[in-house]
Predict the 3D structure of the following.
Amino acid sequence: MLKRNTRTAAIVAVGAVAASLAIASPALAVPNNNSVKKLTKAVTLEGVMEHLEAFQAIADEHGDRAAGRDGYAASVDYVVDQLEGAGYSPVVQEFEFPYFDENNALVRISPNPRAFIDGTDFLRNRFDSGSPEGTATGPLVPVGIVLVDEDDPPNSNTSGCEASDFAGFPVGAIALMQRGTCGFAVKALNAEAAGAAGVIIMNEGQSIPDDREGLLNMIGDATGLTIPTVFVTSDVGEDLYSTPLATVTVTVDYDEETRTAWNVLAETKAGNDDNVVMAGAHLDGVQDGAGINDNGSGSAALLETAIQMQKVKPNNTVRFAWWGAEEEGLLGSEYYVGNLNEEEQGDIALYLNFDMVASPNYMFGIYDGDNSSGTAPEGFIPPGSAEIEDVFEAYYDSVGEPYQDTDFSGRSDYGPFIDVGIPAGGLFTGAEDKKTADEAALYGGVIGAAYDPCYHQPCDNLTGAGQDVALYDLLRAEYDLEGNVNLHALDVNSDAIAAAVITFAFDTSTVNGVRAPGKSHGAGKSADAFKNRSAG
């Protein structure tokens, strides 16, 4: 079991912040919610929203809830206080991480002014030799751009790979180049040698067979580079390329230091410590936003599930986790798993992950544990993950909701668990990708709009501030929204989370073959086990 430690001094120091928010405490008279029927009834939308409102209040006070900043420390303190109020003995696990205060910018000044979003539309370079800071404004000059079809072969573009590509390049301009053939550092250094004041490199644009559309970190040895350099998605690159006579500003401005973040862990007092069911959600958000859907939604639903399970005496120990610094690269969950020995890793029967479960233009995605969509490489998915997927499918079937596979990619905090062979599963309602016509037929919503139009943006909040008014009016015509939260999706998924956790709390036999003592709580094939627990 977890050591029954209290909060660290660092967390106690920010306790007054959460106390000042006048947030609700867990109910004193919580029944023994030891079945799917009882627990899903107890986990209410109102209870989950109280936690989200507390997270919003914290962000209002501190500006955001990003790891390494005061709003994250206050979020940790809030979760700890709620867990202690429910009778748990939470453990706060401290770790250090490389902190970056990013103030980068990419702006098209004219024509059609547009400020692009750091972390969504573009990223500064992270070359091994350093990321030169500075600001450059000038005319945008494309260098060897060739727009591609989604199924064109990758690395077919030589944009910026040769000095001759820059013949006639105007000194002081901003070079727009395209991924392909040679390294990013080569392109940037060639542009600087030609007199560029700044560099923008766009992804190549193919989606088949590999994704060459989104963001990635530019690395490599760019020794000697002194100009600001950023990477943009293929969509942003095409937008810039298609704007004649554009003038743009590129800014790279950041601070780097080592800071502290925390994981919060709590577990049931009863249960088999050799067969632990883990359920987690990342608690941090991105800088300059409240982080309400990403990932206040998963954190709040998990917290309410833990509170309503406070009197349950499960067969298997249930360990809840709220991870820090996920947005910096799964750092909290990596730290946790990396500090477990082989025996401790082996004690974990399965891990459930909940990251973004209330996207405003939602779909109901279940991690594709049986790889029926064929998106994961052979051997990538640990055995037992398919049976976890079965339980989520059974829950959606039981309430008459549609669902679909979402890639089992390791993109969120289940990644470190599957890396050591622990079966995993979870839910996801979508991020920056766009809703299809087929999905709109299932769930409603706006075709061609992102599942979460405020993904990694300041408008991911409960207030509606900064949101695209026309788009959100369309969404509200179909859905009950509160800010960037789809209340129907949050309600359904909060119950789905509770249903899966309580099911595996009593029986993991379909996942790892471990049968609980006795027969009072039901066992059997995944969906059958769920049905047995549902009956109460």
Notes: The two ends are 27 Å apart (CA to CA). Residues 487-506 form the longest helix (20 residues). The chain is about 30% helix and 20% strand. The first strand starts at residue 91 and ends at 102.
